[in-house]
Specification:
16 strands; globular; 5-stranded parallel sheet; 6-stranded mixed sheet
């Protein structure tokens, strides 16, 4: 599989370049260039197929022009000592739990795959790379777990002062680890601005071999397509009729990766999503991407610090507009409907659900006109552990699930022992990148 920029159809690259130089100079985002038909792999897999094995098989089928099946299998095996859980809640209702990784979030899967793929590519080519990201949440903990044991990938991680968490001191570069955390005396927006300034300078990007670990990098987004295939292998023998996935949109990465699954021949009949200001139903009852009214050449470059995948969704719509506008089903979910869904899931199935999972379930209930008419099965996609949204769960249920040890560790505050830098200290950030670049061996 090759990849093309959303803003230049002539900018076509291989998987390696899409990983290592993930922000095209034209300001777009990389998307799959061709539609592979993986039907024979998807239909062959069943409930005995592990997630790692499935990911390795699909990786091999997608990028066999660059890597052998053995290498693809090795990437997936190293990335995924953990896997999702699929449970049946009712005759035609299932839940796909993506929070059984080390930090209790679906991001564990994408970050683990990206870093494993990067390490493999860099080793084959005798290179090294730096991931430059910002966080005030769980990304840092995900990165810490994923980068342990890596030799050729380092992470420079910006975070607001006092917000660093989920790492061990051994994860820090100055202690032999792979993360160089920088606390910023400012907000997360200040951290984002520093990253944007670096990536706006293509000379710096190439000099320091910079990439990102968020979903602007197609290597972080693509493995999320494996979620839906994995769920299908678990329910295909028991699901009645058509299959629909209900998922909260977030930055639209999970819905875009779900659409990629469909394009790769996954049997799926639609995606149900809570409506947002940017993704809604038009007067004709079809999906509308609000940004699409602005031509691409009139927009700012894609954001390397805080990405949205709406542009990737538009790219899919432009290629398949008639079908896709009746394939994604938004629903306007109110706060009260979200809360009611949380209570309903607990009362019916003894299931704790965070706000995003509750919203996805509420959307599915509101779009029963689609699923019931087709005698369809619905898979609710639970992206994060309910314990991560304790306040919402406790407000609606009067109790919340206990946070297990590994997830609790991801929230433990960490001190770097170094002073925070000023919000606009671009020169210091560049000096850190330079110090890492000068290391003979990472």
């Amino acid at each position: 599989m090759r990849f093309v920029s959303t803003r230049d159809s002539n900018n076509i690259v291989d998987f390696k370049q899409a990983l290592l130089d993930c922000m095209p100079a034209d300001g777009g985002l990389y998307v799959p260039c061709e539609c592979e038909d993986l039907r024979k792999w998807i239909l062959y897999a069943d409930e005995r197929t592990s997630f790692a094995n499935l990911a390795g098989t699909l990786t091999s089928a997608l990028i066999n022009r660059e890597f052998s099946p053995i290498i693809c299998e090795a990437i997936a095996t190293r990335a995924f000592p953990f896997e999702p859980v699929v449970r049946q809640l009712d005759d035609n209702l299932f839940i796909l739990e993506l929070y059984h990784g080390p930090t209790g979030t679906f991001k564990d899967f994408g970050v683990a795959y990206l870093t494993a793929a990067l390490e493999t590519v860099l080793q084959m080519n005798g290179e090294k790379a730096i991931l430059l990201d910002a966080t005030s949440g769980e990304l840092g903990a995900c990165m810490a777990h994923a980068l342990r044991g890596k030799r050729l990938v380092k992470s420079v991680l910006l975070c607001p002062k006092g917000k660093l968490r989920g790492m061990e001191e051994s994860d820090f570069v100055w202690n032999g680890g792979n993360i160089y955390p920088i606390e910023v005396d400012g907000t997360e927006a200040d951290c984002h601005n520093l990253i944007r300034r670096v990536f706006a300078d293509r000379e710096l990007v190439h000099k320091y071999h910079l990439s990102v670990a968020n979903t602007a990098n197609i290597g972080r987004l693509l493995p999320q397509a494996f979620f839906y295939t994995y769920a299908f292998t678990r329910i295909k023998k028991i699901a009645d009729g058509d299959i629909y996935y209900a998922v909260a949109v977030g930055n639209y990465g999970n819905i875009v990766s779900g659409l990629y699954s469909w394009r790769l021949a996954l049997p799926v009949n639609g995606f149900i999503v809570p409506e947002t200001a940017d993704l809604r139903v038009d007067a004709g009852g079809n999906i509308e991407v609000v940004d699409s009214v602005v031509p691409l050449d009139k927009r700012p470059a894609a954001d390397p610090a805080d990405p949205s995948n709406l542009e990737r969704m538009e790219n899919i719509f432009n290629a398949n507009s008639l079908l896709l506008r009746s394939f994604v089903y938004p629903a306007a979910v109110s706060g009260e409907q979200e809360s009611r869904a949380c209570r309903d899931l607990f009362q019916k199935y003894r299931l704790y659900a965070d706000s995003q999972t509750s919203s996805a379930y509420a959307a599915a209930q509101l779009r029963r006109d689609v699923t019931e008419d087709e005698d369809g099965s619905v898979v609710i996609v639970a992206r994060n552990a309910p314990a991560l949204d304790e306040q919402f769960v406790k407000h609606n249920l009067g109790e919340a699930p206990d946070m297990d040890g590994s997830i609790a560790a991801a929230f433990r505050p960490v001190s770097t022992g170094k002073p925070a830098i000023a919000a606009g200290d671009f020169e210091y950030l560049v000096s850190v990148l330079n110090s890492l670049n000068l290391l003979r061996v990472f």
